[in-house]
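From the shared-data thread, chain only:
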Amino acid sequence: MRAYERFLKYVVINTRSDDMTGRTPSSEGQFDLARLLVEEMHQIGIEDAYVDDKCYVYGSIPATSGYEEVPCVMFCAHLDTAAFNAENVRPQLVENYNGEEIPLGKSGKVLSPKKFPDLKELVGQTLIVTDGTTLLGADDKAGIAEIMTMAETVIREKLPHGRLAFSFPPDEEICAGAKDLDLEKLGADVGYTVDGGKVGMVQYENFNAALVQISIQGFGVHPGSAKDVMVNALLVANELNNMLPSGDIPRNTTGYEGFFHVTKWNGTPDECTMEYIIRDHDRALFEARKKCIMHIAELLNDRYGKDTVKITITDEYFNMADVIKEHYELIEYAVQAVRMAGEKEIIKPIRGGTDGCQLSFRGLPCPDIGTGVYGHHGPFEHITVEALDKVTEILLNVVRLFAEHK
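Structure, as tokens:
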């Protein structure tokens, strides 16, 4: 089975994660995909595949005789999709793409080369797009399909290899994917996530990330007698937002540039809650951003009264570059695998995070290999049939390279 055929099966299962449920997995649909994967893994010959009670899928292929000393490599892709409609995903195939705008079903939306210049690179290929009402789910079901197809090929063609481990965790999109992954059960020495990015992408520098939760307590009185008394929580929230560096937002930043991003803002004049995410590749700048928002809260409390603004900052993950630099052969193998597939490597910082970030700091160095997807997390998400095949080839090359260097 080709990777795109698997992919089309996987995307119709709603696996959208939900950070409000407080459980693992955060959505039941992830179990539906997990069970399907375990069934498929058994069918292709991964006999020990199973899903645990928290929806983590595990499986492995024993080393070829004589290759037992080759390091065990894990391949990982997450089950969940991002916070956008994932119910009734209807993928559309556009064969021999001509480089023009693509109407997305009857939604009125169009996938345009003006907004997505990458489309010009995909002329002549077979695109897989949405109908405009949902995301596609290529982040990260493309990665799952590519890993599964690689595994099937290794077994079918009896390619020599060291032990290979596979992991499909839930809830990566809400920063919870790696926390309950049992590394002892997995038994891997090193790993790769296959999660997002163009064909040829090899990434090991990610954001340092923190979640900021803010509560603002107003002081309500009748507006007619409010002079020097009322504290409007909504206005305090606006004041806080305006005191942050105005240019440091996602729209204005790229490359290694960090940002503050407000993700929630709800309330009344009496009370208000806000959430921000803080991102920066540089650890010192990351810590400075946290101090900045804490200092703003202190200034507002001096102005409006103690405990007007309460703030909690939770670190989510850190830049794995410090870990990966000690295992740079992982990058060298990935780059060589890309070149063997006839592609040019692209090494850029990740403006986000992967499960590999947390796994690297837990002792399993785990850079990322791109899946070939574009336009993540929304109705303009797209990928090509050819990209799914090519990334499968890259993963097979990684397996070959580890075996050759035993």
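The two ends are 30 Å apart (CA to CA).
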